[in-house]
């Protein structure tokens, strides 16, 4: 799985912007970005349609992640939701298919459906999103070690996952996919500590926030931008290397959790 992807939340919400959004995604692929993250929820299928347009003729180069609603997580529900997503993206396979957040359908049913999709070649791999440790423990034992990832809210200002979720995943070789890695362009990007580290590297705060995540073990980032200049800026973070002084300064400004904390969600 590529370590850097493009998020697509808030894309596909307005039909008049579809063509421009597809152009932006195509330009991101031209830069070398190979992972796209989407969900049936984004624009109620609109983001998947935009992706379908953008990836025409180049599907094989890419790693596509999509997610299904918890209300579609029954055995048949997940199969049908996947067929709809594939039709919108006009492709044969989703590389990694995730339950968007924990719901009320028993997970045995969900994972039966996911295994069926995998056996039929409709998905290559499956996983979860927004699962805390208790949720992860409820996954049928045989499926736990097979998880392709847990996609979680994770950035410098929100390190809740580090208490128990990240160690749980690491022990089982399950990658973390950090969503909202820029904390949705909130105060994080204006932090003095981030600016100081950024100045040392002749980089931007967004690049440092992403580089920090990329240096965490088994962590993938999926920042979203609808602006190609920012996508280029963000993608350059893969070439940055933070040293021990940088990491100490960031730890001091954004300390890891000192005890159990509820997993955040956006
Ligand atoms: N599994 C889940 O429950 C879940 C939840 C949330 C998100 N996600 C996924 O994760 C992706 C990323 O998360 P996110 O969209 O919530 O937040 P994010 O990537 O942390 O931040 C996106 C925001 O930052 C801005 N931005 C991007 N690059 C920037 C830069 N270099 N400098 C300044 N501002 C910048 C974007 O604006 P512009 O577009 O105008 O550049 C946008 O407003 C989503 O798109 C989605 O695919 C998953």
Can you give keywords for this protein?
about 270 residues, TIM Barrel, eight-stranded parallel β-sheet, 11 helices, 8 strands, about 40% helix, globular, binds NADP nicotinamide-adenine-dinucleotide phosphate
Précis, in short:
The protein is of the alpha/beta class and 266 residues long. The chain has eleven helices and eight strands.
SSE layout and pairing:
Layout: E1 5-7, H1 18-31, E2 35-37, H2 46-54, E3 63-68, H3 75-89, E4 94-99, H4 107-119, E5 123-129, H5 133-137, H6 141-144, E6 150-153, H7 165-171, E7 176-179, H8 192-201, H9 205-214, E8 219-221, H10 228-235, H11 244-253
Helix pairs in contact: 1-2, 1-10, 3-4, 8-9
Question: Would you write up a description of this structure?
Answer:
With 266 residues, the protein is α/β, with parallel strands linked by helices. The protein has one domain (5-185, 219-227): TIM Barrel. The chain has eleven helices and eight strands. Strand 4, helix 4 (107-119) and strand 5 (123-129) form a beta-alpha-beta unit. Helix 1 crosses helix 2 and helix 8 (192-201) crosses helix 9. It is globular and about 50 Å long. The mean pLDDT is 97. The site of NADP nicotinamide-adenine-dinucleotide phosphate has 27 residues, from helix 10.
């Amino acid at each position: 799985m590529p370590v850097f992807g493009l998020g697509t939340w808030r894309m596909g919400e307005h039909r008049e912007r579809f063509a421009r959004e597809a152009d932006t995604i195509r330009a991101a692929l031209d830069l070398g970005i190979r992972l796209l993250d989407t969900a049936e929820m984004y624009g109620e299928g609109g983001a998947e349609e935009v992706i379908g347009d953008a990836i025409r003729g180049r599907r094989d180069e890419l790693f596509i992640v999509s997610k299904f609603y918890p209300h579609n997580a029954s055995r048949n529900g997940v199969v049908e939701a996947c067929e709809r997503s594939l039709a919108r993206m006009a492709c044969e396979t989703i590389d990694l298919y995730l339950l968007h957040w924990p719901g009320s359908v028993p997970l045995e049913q969900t994972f039966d459906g996911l295994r069926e999709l995998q056996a039929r070649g409709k998905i290559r791999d499956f996983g979860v999103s927004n699962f805390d440790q208790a949720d992860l423990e409820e996954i049928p034992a045989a499926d736990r070690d097979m998880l392709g990832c847990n996609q979680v809210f994770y950035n410098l200002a929100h390190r809740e996952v580090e208490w128990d979720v990240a160690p749980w995943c690491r022990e089982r070789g399950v990658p973390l996919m950090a969503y909202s890695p820029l904390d949705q362009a909130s105060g994080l990007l204006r932090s003095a500590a981030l600016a100081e580290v950024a100045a040392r590297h002749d980089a931007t705060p967004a690049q440092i926030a992403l580089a920090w995540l990329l240096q965490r073990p088994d962590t993938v980032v999926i920042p979203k931008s609808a602006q190609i200049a920012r996508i280029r800026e963000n993608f350059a973070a893969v070439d940055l290397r933070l040293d021990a002084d940088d990491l100490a300064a960031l730890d001091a400004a954004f300390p890891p959790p000192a005890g159990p904390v509820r997993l955040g969600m956006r």
